[in-house]
Amino acid sequence: MQAEQAKNFSSSYLVNNLVNPVRFYDAVQKIPPKAIIIEIAPHGLMRALLKRSLHAESDCLSLMSRKESDNLHYFLSNIGQLYTLGLRLDLKKLYPPIEYPVGTGTPMLSPGIKWDHSKEWVVPSWEEFLPESSIYSTTIGKWMI
Which residues form the Malonyl-CoA:ACP transacylase (MAT) domain (predicted)? Predict the structure, then answer.
């Protein structure tokens, strides 16, 4: 009967959750070691409890915190933490897609780059880095094969 109630979000489902005990510890024990747990909630209330209940090698992150003044920064910091934990994230989904050609009002990068031409530098050619015993002949300019 409980599995059937869980399929539909109804008043009986809510009443069932309110009158029956939560078996949180039993569920946490089924989380494997070295797991990454992401708490998706308006505030990471369960994070401290999870850290105490999980294996030492596991990591627990929350994506929001009501104590933070800048939740966007908090969210992106935790996304960065996921990356450092080894998850490969598709960060392109955080930004709107670029449609080409870009609009006429789009700022370009090139005006922001200023080259300093006040000094001249000698740039050696790649042949000058070859040892004398190289199989490349500089006089002919061909590889001796």
Answer: 2-86
